[in-house]
Amino acid sequence: MRIFVTGASGWIGSAVVPELQAAGHEVIGLARSDEAAKTIANSGAEVVRGELADLDLLRATAASSDGVVHLGYVHDFSRMPEAAATDRAAIETFGAALAGSGAPLLIASGVLGLARGRAATEQDDPDPAVHPRVGNAQVTLSFAAQDVRPIVVRFAPTVHGAGDHGFVARLVEIARERGTSGYVGDGANRWPAVHRQDAARLVRLAVDAAPAGSVLHAVAEEGVPTHAIAEAIGRGLDLPVAPAAPEEFGWLGAFFAADCPASSAITQQRLDWSPEHPGLVADLDAGHYFAR
Question: Which of 30, 46, 104, 196 is the most buried (most CB within 10 A)?
Answer without folding.
Answer: 30
